[in-house]
Amino acid sequence: MTIGEKIREIRESKKWTLEQVANLTGMSRQRVQAIESSTGYPMISTIQKIAKALGCPLRDILNEPLQLDLPNTPMKETEYPCANAGKCPFYKRDAGG
């Protein structure tokens, strides 16, 4: 569940409109809608403001594992820093150096 979906779920459970949340946060209705539909990327302070308006702790919104839209292809070994530990200047085989 995304942050926006969680916000929408909480808002709808209270039977509140987008306008009500917008008025309580000082944001536009369009901005709240963009956040809920995940087309807007809110700063943590914005999420805090929405949580306060909804009367719920911030953790209720952020406690879900976030869904990230990441590529589904693994990185090549050459893309990992220090992929070959034997050649990594920061890697030491023993504590003695």
Tell me the overall shape. Answer: globular
**Fraction in helix:** 40-55%
Main β-sheet: number of strands, strand sense, barrel status? none
Low-confidence stretches: none
CATH superfamily of the domain at 3-62: lambda repressor-like DNA-binding domains
Give your account of this protein's structure.
This protein is mostly helical and 97 residues long. The chain has a domain at 3-62: lambda repressor-like DNA-binding domains (434 Repressor (Amino-terminal Domain)), CATH 1.10.260.40. The relative contact order is 0.14. The protein is globular and about 45 Å long. The chain is 44% helix and 0% strand.
Topology readout:
Elements: H1 3-13, H2 18-25, H3 29-36, H4 44-54, H5 58-62
Helix pairs in contact: 2-3
Q: Can you summarize this structure?
A:
This protein is mainly alpha-helical and 97 residues long.
Descriptive terms for the model:
97 residues; mainly alpha; 0% strand
